[in-house]
Amino acid sequence: MAQLWGGRFTKETDQLVYNFNASISFDKKFYRQDMEGSIAHVKMLGKQGILTETEAKEIAAAIQDILQEVEAGTLEISHEYEDIHSFVEATLIERLGDTGKKLHTGRSRNDQVALDMRLFTRQEVLETDQLLEKLLHVILTIMEHNTDTYMPGFTHLQKAQPVTLAHHLGAYFEMFKRDRQRMEDIYRRMNYCPLGSGALAGTTYDLDRYDTAEQMGFEGPMLNSMDGVSDRDYLIEFLSALSTIMMHLSRFSEEVIIWNSNEYQFVEIDDAYSTGSSIMPQKKNPDIAELVRGKTGRVYGALLSLLTTMKGIPLAYNKDMQEDKELTFDAMDTVKGCLGLFTGMLSTMKFQKERMEASAKHGFTNATDAADYLVNHGVPFRDAHGIVGQIVLYCIEKKIAIDDMSLEELKAISPVFEEDIFDAVSMKTCVEKRLTIGAPGQEAMKKVIAIEKKYLSRD
Ligand code: ARG
């Protein structure tokens, strides 16, 4: 047991208490941020004359050494310390003696940990954004090549109207684009520095909080020291955005699983991204998509856990807040892993275009267009709906598609039909007539692709 705060205690901490309280096993994850924060702090103490310039330089250099040794693997972060802050300070004191003891002047672990977690999360926001960007590139490439790949669009998982693969994937493009916007937004809002908040009430030292904020790339200091040590909103926002990413990935995974099923065969997942069965030799399972879908639950869990942890905590810092880390780290890693794997799976997946197109031809996906044809020839929509309903019934009995009917058969149901009905209900017409922006028609789709290409080339 190695603690920073033994002074007012007369008894040793019980080992079980010590273990329960310690956080080094997980807060060592932000050792780099902890040391970068300490270097910024000590440089500012030197500039402000709170430490001498020599002391500040000596401490900053020693922390830099510790950092390099940890990165090189020559110095191990020992679990005998309570947390990463204690490890760094103790190692520093071992090396510099009394000078090392001055590092923590004007600082508390409360503002220190708030800073570390913020610095770490800020980087995670950027990395998640980069992974989303890669996924968007893959989606857009598939879209560009498939503006005329017809497939059924569904509602209630029932064939509804024909769309294209570009259009279907375009929906996911928009979702992941909004996810990126959420990253940008969270970054902007969280990028204020808690360091200098002290334990809760600032300090009596003449700290320059603007200086430390600037050294670490923050917009400025957080403007209330009690908020500085106890705000975890930014983590909740991030976990909420991560949950939304997982929800999108999970919906997409579900579609991949359906499309990959023997019944659909719309796609074939690459061998490198599928797994087999230990007993059934014919099996090629979509495990990656299933795992992504499955892991969505644990990311939601992290969000709900932190919301619940925070809801009853009075100002300012309370130890409950230490619980902000483990599940959040897990959620961060889970989402990054899922984004990377999903992108790989998607970029190697084969789309069985003929199967998709054949499927779009059946299931009366052109029934709305047949009704629209009648409307264009003066039949009120509600009547047209009824007429086409009869046609569908007739086709179901005869096991044929609308396109397979003869003009005589059609005319027997409504005399309004003429030869041009066949062109009007052909799949090509059904899709290509839909030209309002956002619709699947090729010309409309190409406009959207151009807009999104421009958006991606901004980065
Ligand atoms: N490990 C603690 C945490 O994660 C660091 C802050 C400790 N502060 C304190 N007053 N005990 O929240």
Which descriptors apply to this entry?
single chain; 459 residues; mainly alpha; Fumarase C, Chain B, domain 1; Fumarase C, Chain A, domain 2; Ribonucleotide Reductase Protein R1, domain 1; two-stranded antiparallel sheet; two-stranded parallel sheet; 6 strands; binds arginine
Brief characterization of the structure:
The chain has 459 residues and is mainly α. It has 19 helices and six strands.
Walk me through the structure.
The protein has 459 residues and is mainly alpha-helical. It folds into 3 domains: 6-105, Orthogonal Bundle (Fumarase C, Chain B, domain 1); 110-152 and 163-204 and 227-358, Fumarase C, Chain A, domain 2 (Up-down Bundle), CATH 1.20.200; 361-457, Fumarase/aspartase (C-terminal domain) (Ribonucleotide Reductase Protein R1, domain 1), CATH 1.10.40. The protein is built from 19 helices and 6 strands. The chain has helices at 15-21, 24-27, 31-47, 53-72, 84-96, 109-145, 165-190, 209-215, 225-230, 233-259, 287-310, 326-348, 353-361, 367-376, 381-398, 407-413, 421-424, 427-432, 442-457; strands spanning 150-155, 158-164, 192-193, 220-221, 267-268, 350-351. The protein has a two-stranded antiparallel sheet with strand order 1-2. The two termini are 48 Å apart. The model has no long low-confidence stretch (mean pLDDT 95). The structure holds arginine. Residues 23, 27, 83, 109-110, 113, 317, 319, 321-322 line the site of arginine.
